[in-house]
Amino acid sequence: MMKIKKIKNFDAMLLALVFIIFIIGLLSIESATQAKNLPFMEGYLFKQLTWFGVAIIFLIIAARISYHKFLDAAYILYGINVALLALVLILGQARLGAQRWFSIAGFAFQPSEFMKLTLILALSAYVGSRKGDMDSLKSLMVPLLLMGVPFALVILQPDLGTALLLIPVFFAILLIGGARIKYLIWMIAAGLAATPFFWHMLRGYQKQRLMVFINPNTDPLGAGYTIIQSKIAVGSGGLLGKGWLNGTQNQLNFIPERHTDFIFSVIGEEWGFLGAAAIILLYLLVIHRSFNIGNLTSDSCGKCIAAGITVLLGLQVVINIAMTIGLMPVVGIPLPLVSYGGSSLLATLVAIGLLINVGIRRSTF
Questions:
Q1: Is 246 within a domain?
Q2: Domain of 187, in residue numbers
């Protein structure tokens, strides 16, 4: 009977949507990096496919083992991830002014990408097990500590984008877990009041990114260069785009980081408005199905996991696309399943596996 329920509740459409988006990502990565003329075995496409093979194994593990077993190990996984975040500040590889990666056999490993997931599991384990007992200010102290430690470590790397992503995930899980809205509002107000303090903690290039968001032309050849070129690329795509491998801004190397954070500009230029709208629609369908999984499960821990992952995926998509077209500051958030990056791809597919896991077992708890 259990096997029948699992098959019935398996969200094959969610998995299909994920694969379609990933294929679009492969095409975009190939277009964004072909000018480098690297041998296939050394190229970005091969590395992304290698990571995908590893990620599929972890997706299957995340989907098959009951998520309650992951919750049982949540604090251990969280602790290991926090230790890695601290270690990367000492032994990590520095790139573009940030120290976020370990380099292993030519592949970069970014602990902060997995911190998003282990934080979701740790918060879900704590909040979900205290259903009906999260309505006091005292009950919010442990979740605040769970979020605050990795937030501080990620800020030190520095990785402002990832750190800021932890905050809405934190609030989403608390809201689903029954925290009083007035306390959440107080915390948001306190955070906003501390904004001037955080401004002084930002590094020079981070401040410059925020300034050029207001007016990119204040530094058109420096901090504002990437966003200007990205907007030109997206705008020049028109309705139908210039065709795969035919984007001039892309192929003539005008857009820095176009295979990672700014890959949406490649999609906009080569596939046009219709292509960009199509991938946004695919993401909306993924978010819709993720939301439904959380809505349909009766288990409070499962609801918290689904809520955290849904908010995490949705915000990454919104922030990445918005910064690509100049509607938000550049904060270094990859486009899930599309941007080149093994850590991001692995973390995203594990998150999808956990969502499928919650969906499969929604009637068993």
A1: yes
A2: 2-360
Residue 180 has pLDDT above 50, yes or no: yes
- The answer to whether residue 365 is domain-embedded is no
Closest to 171 in 3D by CA, of 151, 153, 156, 157? 151
Tokens read off for 210: 């925020």
Instruction: Tell me the C-alpha distance between 324 and 280, whole Å.
Output: 13
CB 294 within 8 A of CB 67: no
Angle in degrees, CA 116, 120, 122, rounded to 5: 115
pLDDT band at 241 (very low <50, low <70, confident <90, very high): very high
Residue 154 in any domain: the answer is yes
Amino acid identity of 243? G
> Is residue 329 one of the residues assigned to a domain?
yes
User: Are the C-beta atoms of residues 356 and 41 closer than 8 Å to each other?
Assistant: no
How many domains does the chain fold into? 1
pTM of the model: 0.90
Write a three-state SS string for 86-109: HHHHHHCEEECCEEEEEEECCEEE
What pLDDT sits at residue 89?
Answer: 87
